[in-house]
Amino acid sequence: MRLSRATLTALADDVAQPAASDAPLRRIVHLGIGAFHRAHQAVYTQDAMTPDDGWRITGVSLRSAQVRDTLAPQDGLYTVTERSNGATSTRLITAIDTVLVAAEDPQAVIAALADPDTHVVTLTVTEKGYYRHPASGALLTDDPAIANDLGGGVPRTIFGYLAAALERRRSTGAGGLTLVSCDNLSGNGALLMSLLTAFVDHRDPDLGAWVRAHVAAPDTMIDRIVPASTQAERASVAAAIGVDDAAAIVTEPFRQWVIEDRFAGPRPAWETAGAQIVDDVAPFELAKLRLLNASHSTLAYVGLQLGHAFVHEAIADPVLRAFVMAQMQEEAVPSLTAAAGLDPDVYIDAILDRFANADLHHRLDQIAMDGSQKLPQRWIATVTDRLAQGLDSPRHSLSLAAWIAYTADAPRISDDPLRDRFAAIWAESAGDSLQVVARFVTELGIFPAQFDDAIVESLARSIATWRAEGPRAALQAAVGEFDA
After folding, report:
1. Over the stretch 390-400, which tens digit does the pLDDT of each residue have?
2. Residues 6+ apart with CB under 8 A from 107
């Protein structure tokens, strides 16, 4: 029996269901609907609804119809199951009532964004969906998809859709929007706004002025570990709740959402659901990028080369755990900004506990996707900040060496937008570590000018050691004497 409104009475009694509400509905459009949005922003939005304040979400898949085809037979319903060390709880989520596929009906997406009842647009489009230069942050105006949208073609990017919708909102008097980026990018709201206005200014400077006056894009920090669901997990959920939920999500109990207090109009009262509305997101964002996200990437690129498949396996490896802790405590923490309510030691303890949750099968290869787009914020920025203070970052440098070594295996980096450059550099360098590193630093556009010849040579030596002696020996040397 498939989960749907018609089968709600068959749900197990211990599945929490939201109370019915007849409040007038206001709308959020979410671009890039996937598991993370359904486990995070949709949950916050549902929890923020009251009998007097109703919100619903129109989800947009920019390319694939998979999420739409999964949720449509279920009337948009799905469950979120939280698991941690043997404890389990499941709840029904009803916040999403429509899913559109942009590639099939772009005009429907523009209409949803331009609807006067739409006040908020949230986004989880991953780092590569912003079409920005990884070093300068500038809009990639020569990218074929951006060039298509700038030329007025059927939109292929978030900027094409947003520009078309904002033009319609201006002409119809529908008002502005709040754009809430939920992607792991430093200053994600400010970045989104700068890229959007750069795009719009190319198309119509008058619209650019209107956007600056009527659109807000708060910075945010989001956190929840949401592994890709497996058939085995969906079968386990079905057995527990009494119906088949093809869109079931299994996640951890922890969740966090920090949002800058900058909005253009009505929004859900997310703070009543546990979100933090603050004046400055930057310290929280920096801590998450340089501690949790950076450690995730280290576990992924190093752990995969040690033969691990999941986060909980990687963090249980004593030498890898010691390396990650040293990287966080000795190099990342000193680069953070102090803020009330942010204790790095407490945060690190919580991160390690979350990583060790064996009930959450978070695949390392999922985390390893799109490394070229993630590592500038997660590792390289820390190294650059420390260089400005005259400090070395040996653990981060070894992590970078591990990533570069990882890219030598072309099949496993198929999801990185720079995969063709990786393959060409490795092939043309014939395995020469110094030449590989020099070309990565000078050609990929993700390394800053501070990565000089001395750093290149140091990275090359680390890669040579990594490949000749193996990851474990390199880690042992990096953390000092360690009894594994």
Report:
1. 999 999 999 99
2. none
